[in-house]
Amino acid sequence: MDTVFDVERIRKDFPVLSRELPGGRPLVYLDSGNSSQKPFQVIETMREHLAVHYANVGRAMHVLGAESTEAYESAREKVAAFVGAPSRDEIVFTKNASEALNLVAYAFGNPINEDPRFTMGPGDEIVISEMEHHSNIVPWQLLARRTGATLRWFSVTDEGRLDLSDLDELVTERTKIVSIAHQSNVLGTVNPVARVLERVRQVGALMMLDASQSVPHKAVDVAALDVDFLAFTGHKAVGPSGIGVLWARAELLEAMPPFLGGGEMIEAVWMDRSTYAPAPHKFEAGTPPIVEAVGLGAAVDYLSSVGMDAIAAHERELTRYALEALGEVPGLRVVGPTDLEDRGGTVSFTLDGIHPHDVGQILDDEFGVAVRVGHHCARPLHLRFGIPATTRASFYLYNTPAEIDALVRGLHHVRKVFA
Amino acid sequence: MIAESMYQELILEHYKHPQGRGLRDPFDAEVHHVNPTCGDEITMRVRLGDGDKVEDVSYDGQGCSISQAAASVLHELATGSTVGETLAVVDEFTRLMQGRGQVEPDEDVLGDAVAFAGVAKFPARVKCALLAWMAYKDALARSAS
Ligand SMILES: Cc1ncc(COP(=O)(O)O)c(C=O)c1O
What we know:
The complex is a heterodimer.
Chain A: H1 7-13, E1 20-21, E2 25-26, E3 28-29, H2 40-53, H3 63-82, E4 91-94, H4 97-107, E5 125-129, H5 138-147, E6 150-154, H6 167-170, E7 175-181, H7 193-203, E8 206-210, H8 222-225, E9 229-233, E10 244-248, H9 250-255, E11 266-269, E12 274-276, H10 290-306, H11 308-326, E13 332-335, E14 346-351, H12 356-367, E15 369-370, E16 372-374, H13 379-384, E17 390-394, H14 401-418
Parallel strand pairs in A: 3-15, 5-6, 5-7, 7-8, 8-9
Antiparallel strand pairs in A: 1-2, 4-10, 9-10, 11-12, 13-14, 14-17, 16-17
Helix pairs in contact in A: 2-10, 3-10, 11-14, 12-14
Chain B: H1 2-6, H2 9-16, E1 29-35, E2 40-48, E3 54-62, H3 65-78, H4 83-97, H5 107-110, H6 123-144
Antiparallel strand pairs in B: 1-2, 2-3
Helix pairs in contact in B: 2-3, 3-6, 4-6
Bound molecules: pyridoxal-5'-phosphate.
Pyridoxal-5'-phosphate binds at residues 96-98, 133, 135-136, 181, 185, 210, 212-213, 233, 235, 244, 377 of chain A.
GO molecular function (chain B): iron ion binding; iron-sulfur cluster binding
Protein name (chain B): Iron-sulfur cluster assembly scaffold protein NifU
Domain NIF system FeS cluster assembly NifU N-terminal (chain B): 6-128
């Protein structure tokens, strides 16, 4: 695991990276924060499951049913180990991070719930931050609307850091849940979980992390973080789309009411009531995304075989290189931290007088450079900075400094076109 | 390459030097339109005169070169023309934009707006080009009522 990080060898694992774009341009994929590419290890595992092991899980009394269930449940075990969960029963498969966040939001203020930690009504408070993805905003807005609770926000500083100056006024005895990004999908900022958590514990609230942008990029250990809930999504972690993960403490999963009702989530059903299966199955109504879960298992195996610390170190070097190179493009302003401290490989920026849509189009069309342009599902954050949109380059284990050079060459050309 | 051909000289010229930009009085109707996917926005006012004459189209907004240049070209084409004539341009422009690059534009109807023909090949950008034109159509409908 401690061998030198051989990015050229890693690139060979990702078939798409050797394709050409129309016109013979090479692909420069700098949009992994949006969704990552897939190694053949994941593609092959999924293909093989579909080809020779496929059947429904948990309810079929035959060889294929047993094999499919075994593969599905062993994916759960792999994911549990990958994020340091004490038990595989603390891993709930969802369809993405958004569903995992909604699942937790719907546990609050539900009349069928009995646990006081999950009651919610007028006077209760939910705390999120200005840097959240819409998936960690809208479920809480909806919860506040349903229950009459109040939604409160951490500010973001000009440097793109979580503003903790009013931590004690924001997180109080009225707070029931604090949900923030582990790492921002726009700024790259890694948030100070321990400092927030300390206050959350003082006031007896619960804490959730949206780890969609951290779990794919560095070693994340839920036991060490010590929070209550954590969500992430498979497709950003070299896994397939259609599969996400909620991790929660076993004791909380037990206390929470079910989210969706259906097959596989019950213990017994009468005409007037039902009892529920124990977690995690209580939260997995209906036939789950079987092949996608198996694919995610292969994805975390792949990432572990490369080594999460090695991946994080590689991305750190790329980020250092990018911040330096981008700093030399005239009129370019990075939105987010410009130092490497508590920062991941996502760099968003504006170019003076040139709209990100125009930047993205020229980069793609002339240089094969794929970046994301727009508000990246974080409109409140863009409003905070008084800008409608940014251009975002996001790096992963398969990116190289030469690709950042291509980005920078592209940006110089963009400036020429719109000068 | 293809995108470079989308950024016609005329479009870049209008983007860098927008014509008739800024909101003016008097006006008969004002509308505000946004493109939710990219945040482009425009506020537009129309002033109508006798005999269906479009006396002024004034606007303010923010967004990419395509959306902002479209507003500038629209201002030039519509001001001094008649409601009927400009609605014909709106229709032809919409047909062109929704044609996925397969529609032969009618240059006689479109005038300078023909420069946007290349945009139709980029589905993600069609809404940018249409923003000002849809706002204009809406403003006309409102000033008539
Ligand atoms: C920080 C963050 N949270 C949540 C999400 C939502 O992920 P998904 O669309 O897979 O639910 C994303 C990605 O889009 C993200 O970057």
